[in-house]
Amino acid sequence: SQRKHQEIRAMRSQLKKIEDLGAAMEEALILDNKYTEHSTVGLAQQWDQLDQLGMRMQHNLEQQIQARNTTGVTEEALKEFSMMFKHFDKDKSGRLNHQEFKSCLRSLGYDLPMVEEGEPDPEFESILDTVDPNRDGHVSLQEYMAFMISRETENVKSSEEIESAFRALSSEGKPYVTKEELYQNLTREQADYCISHMKPYMDGKGRELPSAFDYIEFTRSLFVN
Questions:
Q1: CATH class of 75-155
Q2: DSSP codes of every residue in the chain
Q3: % of the chain at pLDDT higher than 90
Q4: What pTM value is reported for the model?
Q5: Which CATH number fits the domain 159-223, given the four candidates 1.10.275.10, 1.10.238.10, 3.90.190.20, 1.10.10.60?
């Protein structure tokens, strides 16, 4: 993107030559050029639009790189968000209407309830409060990426908090928790739930430890999407 933008910038001198030629033709009162339907003004406007687009794309990419570096959101996740947006942006306008945005979220694993048209949809409305607070009816790529990154970051934080809580339950902060530790520290229902949903812990040699459960894998599986 940066290289393309620099290439476009470098071609500004070509446009300058065309503008000089155009000015010379005007001085000679040649106002109708049969060799091209383009005008110098039109070309300058198109060049400006291209330059603006290059700057916007670069800014967007820089934001995504910064987001990845500061939030720990993986490159794969960012790619998937971006790919989904493009898939639902049928008219390639760089923005999604509310219906397209809702379909996009569902495809990314959001469990949004199906509601009849005109019926209240509080869950989706609260998401729109974040991405389209002024309700202009559209969500831009930038707004959408910012929303997805913030959601992903919340998940990362929450999963780390839960992981730390399990680590505190297990003696000496081991990467597994025993059946006994679960029943000592949690309610019976909570411990039953953990035991029925956690995988047995495997040591480095692939052997199961008796009554030991893998809380790290369990916690991370809770926070997929």
A1: mainly alpha
A2: -HHHHHHHHHTHHHHHHHHHHHHHHHHTT----TT-S--HHHHHHHHHHHHHHHHHHHHHHHHHHHHHHHH---HHHHHHHHHHHHHH-TT--SEEEHHHHHHHHHHTT--PPP--TTS--HHHHHHHHHH-TT--SEEEHHHHHHHHHHHHHHHHHHHHHHHHHHHHHSGGG-SSEEHHHHHHHS-HHHHHHHHHHSEEEE-TTSPEEEEEEEHHHHHHHHT--
A3: 13
A4: 0.45
A5: 1.10.238.10
